[in-house]
Design goal:
six-stranded parallel sheet, binds uridine-5'-diphosphate-xylopyranose, binds adenosine-5'-diphosphate, alpha/beta
């Protein structure tokens, strides 16, 4: 049997996964034409912009890779029909947020964009197509994709030679580190039952990934591995965050505990930083999928176990808001508070599930005046996330208000407190002496990432609260 030869790839979805992944593919596979398609014209225009600061996604190294290949073997377009019809391989990298209504609301993933993509592939493809599931999806989604594709094969009125192989190839990249993760992955996972299709995808990766790092599994193991990896990572964060609260109550120091446990090679030192709770588009969504799946199979204990990871995460965010209010004499109404960092972590402009959103909303409920500064997040994102319109309506009812600041100094000017929520490099070297002069006294800094030079802040005269240390 002949092997499949991949000369043209189409990637549906030009987002945080599709964009960087295809930029890396294009750089390593100069002989493959890669087209990234999206229904969002603005997003495609941004990818095609001559001004790299207009790219829709901020990722270190990404601009260089895109500029190296764009309009050579990497194209960004909204022309879905053409790019699917000429592709030998189609990646589905569309968004799969948690459902907000209907069956499984609050737990299951909304698969409407995945389904729409599968229908478009079914409609426009005209030869054998390898369809690769790249978005994070619940287990057995590949099955749904297969069913849609097969029905189009059966009802193929134009009698073209349509046929499909479906693979699961989950993405493990972490935002802010996307290019490094894609260039040098811990492993690449390819799940499926068509060996020729698996080999074709494996062949592409082997242009830069050592063969022993390419794992081939059945499709469900691949899908479940992605959910499980994210659940385990999130569980570590909830674990260390739960201990951070205990440290604050008992006088232990979370950084000392972290070092002591991290030196146990079975535990390892990575992913043990306490913080305001995990955010990002994947962790909560994937655990909710696990919870939903476990309940579906009547494994309530398993569902409850994983739900606990999310419960701790929500508790961590709300306990931080509560303690800030308590330290500020139980009242933040009309007090100006500087919020440093709105992205869910450093080195990304993504705010999905960012703990900053919850902390800001809690403080607005208390009537605070927030001045928000983030070096990379666009103003329009903050406006969307804090539901600006709703905010305006509520101001008269004692709800707080917020504004966007242009720098750390601008945010701090006239404030009672600074809350550091994202560990941007820029915040590590704040000149506290200069800053405190602009603030109202007593001046506070709440460091939810344990990353500032607290000795300098104390010396300058600030009251310092640091996660996992309490007052120092
Ligand atoms: C995650 C997974 O790491 C990645 O493999 C998967 O493909 C997608 O989900 P991402 O969401 O980009 O990636 O970010 P990650 O670096 O994992 O951080 C997630 C959240 O956990 C962030 O809010 C981060 O601040 C927080 N975190 C991480 C901590 O609070 N402490 C840590 O030690 C590590
Ligand atoms: P992720 O983090 O999974 O990459 P994003 O939201 O960043 O998620 O990107 C998903 C992209 O997929 C969005 O730009 C969205 O417009 C696009 N998209 C969703 N559905 C379709 C579709 N049917 N056809 C083309 N693009 C789509």
């Amino acid at each position: 049997m002949n092997n499949y030869v991949v000369k043209k790839i189409c990637c549906i979805g030009a987002g945080y996964v599709g964009g960087p992944t295809m930029a890396v593919f294009a750089n390593h596979c100069p002989n493959i034409k890669i087209t990234v398609v999206d229904i969002n014209q603005e997003r495609i225009d941004a990818w095609n912009s001559d001004d790299i600061s207009q790219f829709p996604i901020f990722e270190p190294q990404l601009d260089k890779l895109v500029l190296n290949c764009r309009n050579k073997n990497l194209f960004f377009t909204t022309n879905l029909e053409q790019s699917i019809s000429e592709a030998d391989m189609v990646f589905i990298s569309v968004n799969t947020p948690t459902k907000t209504k209907g069956v499984g609301a609050g737990k299951a993933s909304d698969l409407k964009w995945v389904e729409a993509s599968a229908r478009q592939i079914a409609k426009f493809s005209n030869s054998h197509t390898i369809v690769v599931e790249k978005s994070t999806l619940p287990v057995k989604t590949a099955e749904t994709i297969k069913k849609i594709l097969l029905s189009s094969q059966e009802n193929n009125l134009e009698k073209t030679e349509k046929s499909f192989s479906v693979l699961s190839n989950p993405e493990f990249l972490s935002e802010g580190n996307a290019i490094k993760d894609l260039e040098n992955p811990d492993r690449v996972l390819i799940g499926g039952d068509d060996e020729k299709a698996i080999d074709a995808l494996s062949e592409i990766y082997s242009n830069w990934v050592p063969k022993n790092k390419i794992l081939k599994t059945n499709i469900w193991s691949s899908e479940l591995s992605k959910l499980t990896a994210n659940a385990f990572l999130a569980q570590r964060i909830s674990s260390i965050n739960s201990i951070s609260a205990l440290c604050e109550s008992t006088g232990a120091d979370i950084n000392q505990v972290k070092k002591a446990i991290g030196m146990d090679t079975r535990i390892g030192e990575k992913f043990l930083s306490p913080g305001p709770g995990f955010g990002g588009s994947c962790f909560q969504k994937d655990i909710l999928n696990l919870v939903y799946l476990s309940s579906f199979y009547k494994l309530e204990e398993v569902a409850n176990y994983w739900q606990g990871v999310i419960d701790i995460n929500n508790w961590q965010k709300s306990r931080i808001s509560r303690l800030i209010v308590n330290y500020l004499f139980g009242n933040v109404s009309e007090k100006k508070i500087a919020i440093l960092g709105f992205a869910f972590k450093a080195n990304t402009n993504d705010t999905r599930q960012s703990p900053s959103i919850d902390v800001c909303k809690d403080l607005l409920e208390e009537g605070a005046h927030l001045s928000i500064y983030d070096p990379k997040v666009e103003n329009s994102k903050i406006i969307d996330d804090l539901q600006n319109d709703l905010n305006k309506l509520k101001v008269n009812q004692g709800y707080g208000y917020w504004e966007i600041a242009s720098s750390v100094l601008d945010a701090a000017n006239g404030s009672d407190a600074i809350i550091l929520l994202t560990e941007w490099d820029e915040f590590l070297n704040i000149e506290w002496e200069k800053l405190i002069k602009l603030m109202r006294k007593p001046a506070w800094v709440f460091d939810t990432r344990s990353c500032i030079d607290y000795k300098k802040a104390r010396k300058a005269g600030l009251n310092v609260w640091k996660i996992g240390n309490s007052l120092i």
